[in-house]
Amino acid sequence: MNSDLKRGFFENFEQYLSAVLMTVLVLCLGLQVFFRYTLNSSLTWTEELSRLCFVWIIYLGISLAAKQEQHVRVTAQFLLLPKKFRIYQWLIADIIWVGLNILFAVQGIELVHHAIKFPEITPSLGLSKFWIYAIIPAGFILMTLRIFQVYYRAIKNHTWRELAKTGGGE
Fold first, then answer.
1. Which residues of the chain have pLDDT under 50?
2. Model confidence over 120-133: pLDDT tens digits?
3. What is the residue extent of each domain of the chain?
4. In this structure, which of 4, 5, 77, 129 has its CB flanked by the most CB atoms within 10 Å?
5. How many CA atoms lie within 13 A of 28 on its CB side?
6. HSE (CB half, 13 Å, CA atoms) of 131?
7. Cα 169 from Cα 42, distance rounded (Å)
8. Burial label, 74 (beta-carbon count in 10 A; 0-12, 13-18, 19+)
9. How far apart are the C-alpha atoms of 98 and 63, rounded to whole Å?
10. Is 72 left (phi over 0), alpha (psi -120 to 50) or beta?
């Protein structure tokens, strides 16, 4: 795998995996609807698999939103400061955000460790709950990496003052 392909995959990892999971989710739900209303039967595994896909899509989505700088933010407080100080308040908010991400990732790792130590198996698919819980630390770690990526690119491109969308100029 060449470096451009690897870089492209990492750059779009969330989109690729989310697209696959969304396809599986829609197919499972469609299959379930077909079985229930056409064959008067049901499949238990489709509901469990679609729920697993949905949870994974949510956590991949938080990372994708961080990468695209699309997270919901309260920005009214920025208007109270002169424009040249807004980026610093933005930076402080992001440092707190990263700190919380790390806290949630650590707690998620403990949850995953617990799932490995005391395995629980899902009723229909027979999967370890590890697979459900693993996305929690992975999602928060990936989101943190994407936040750092946004700052890296902004510093590299000399656009870091533009990160605070409410105005970061002098």
1. 167-170
2. 999 999 999 999 99
3. 3-70+78-162
4. 129
5. 19
6. 12
7. 59
8. exposed
9. 12
10. beta
pLDDT of residue 5: 67
Six-digit token pair at 158? 């000399």
* Res 168: pLDDT: 44
Residue of 3, 42, 46, 54 whose CA lies nearest to 28: 46
Amino acid at the residue 22: M
Residue type, 60: L
Beta bridge partners of 121: 128
The three-state DSSP-derived secondary structure of the chain is CCHHHHHHHHHCHHHHHHHHHHHHHHHHHHHHHHHHHHCCCCCHHHHHHHHHHHHHHHHHHHHHHHHCCCCCCCCHHHHHCCHHHHHHHHHHHHHHHHHHHHHHHHHHHHHHHHHHHCCCECCCCCCECHHHHCHHHHHHHHHHHHHHHHHHHHHHCCCHHHCCCCCCCC
One-letter amino acid for residue 47 of the chain: E
Which residue(s) pair with 128 in the sheet?
121
Which residue's structure tokens are 């599986």?
Answer: 24
